Design the sequence.
């Protein structure tokens, strides 16, 4: 019996050694460190947005017990936005493997373009019909216009009331290539560039895809450019 007790005592005394974290890594992950990783990740993702960015990261459940991680990595799930109300994943790949999700709110206060007067469907937008409004663009749909130059000359796809924020998907770009127009077809490849003449089959704005019929009757798709040019990349 004494021998059995000594054996059990020796086994239990090894448990702290078996569960000890790697040198320099805490046994338990600090929840505040995870929040800091998520916050820095969101600030980096929002660096290219116009305006003033603020990030508020939610709390981590204090009952969550995760093994210490020397380099936790933040990520977004497919299709998630890095602004507005969002969720950031933080994971560890070594020495332990775990993943946690943290709620966050990203606000972006910036000026955006809105209709100063009612805009009629199909009528080109003029600068005098526009105004700048300041608000949280992170709470708005994708494609909000923040530069008036992006809206001037475009035509609304539907009539818009005064005060409506303008989005790229509600404005059609001004055509740079008209149907049946003679265009210059430019073919660019690795180390070469060839141009020829053709005729546009459809109408397209800057950057849109349009088909062109060449003199030989071949139909080629390319990107419409200003000045009646269609660019084809090989």
Sequence:
């Amino acid at each position: 019996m004494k021998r059995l007790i000594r054996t059990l005592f020796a086994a239990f005394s090894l448990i702290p050694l078996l569960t000890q974290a790697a040198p320099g890594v805490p046994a338990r992950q600090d929840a505040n460190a995870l929040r800091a990783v998520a916050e820095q990740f969101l600030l980096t993702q929002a660096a290219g947005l116009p305006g003033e960015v603020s990030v508020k990261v939610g709390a981590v459940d204090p009952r969550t017990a995760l093994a210490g991680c020397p380099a936790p990595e933040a990520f977004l799930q497919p299709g998630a936005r890095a602004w507005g109300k969002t969720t950031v994943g933080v994971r560890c790949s070594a020495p332990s493997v775990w993943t946690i999700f943290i709620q966050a709110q990203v606000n972006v206060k910036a000026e955006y373009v809105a209709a100063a007067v009612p805009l009629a469907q199909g009528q080109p937008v003029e600068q005098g019909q526009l105004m700048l409004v300041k608000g949280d663009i992170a709470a708005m749909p994708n494609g909000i216009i923040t530069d008036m130059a992006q809206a001037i000359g475009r035509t609304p796809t539907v009539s818009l009331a005064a005060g409506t924020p303008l989005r790229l998907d509600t404005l059609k770009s001004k055509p740079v290539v008209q149907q049946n127009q003679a265009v210059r077809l430019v073919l660019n490849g690795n180390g070469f560039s060839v141009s020829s003449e053709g005729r546009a089959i459809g109408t397209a704005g800057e950057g849109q895809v349009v088909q062109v019929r060449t003199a030989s009757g071949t139909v080629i798709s390319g990107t419409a450019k200003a000045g009646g040019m269609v660019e084809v990349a090989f």
About this structure: The chain has a mean pLDDT of 86. Residues 181 and 224 are 12 Å apart (CA to CA).
